[in-house]
Amino acid sequence: MIRMSNKRIVDTNVAMLANRAIDPTLPDDLIDCAERCIDAIAEATVIGRLVLDAGDEIFDEYRQNLSLRGQPGQGDRFMKWVHDNRHSLPVEDRVKITKAGDSYEEFPDHPVLKDFDLSDRKFVAVANAHTGTPSFLEATDSKWWGWKGALAEAGIDVSFVCEDWIRNKHHQKEKTS
Question: Per residue in 82-111, is it b (16+ CB within 10 Å) or e — as a string?
Answer without folding.
Answer: beeebeebeeebbbebeeeeebbebbbeee
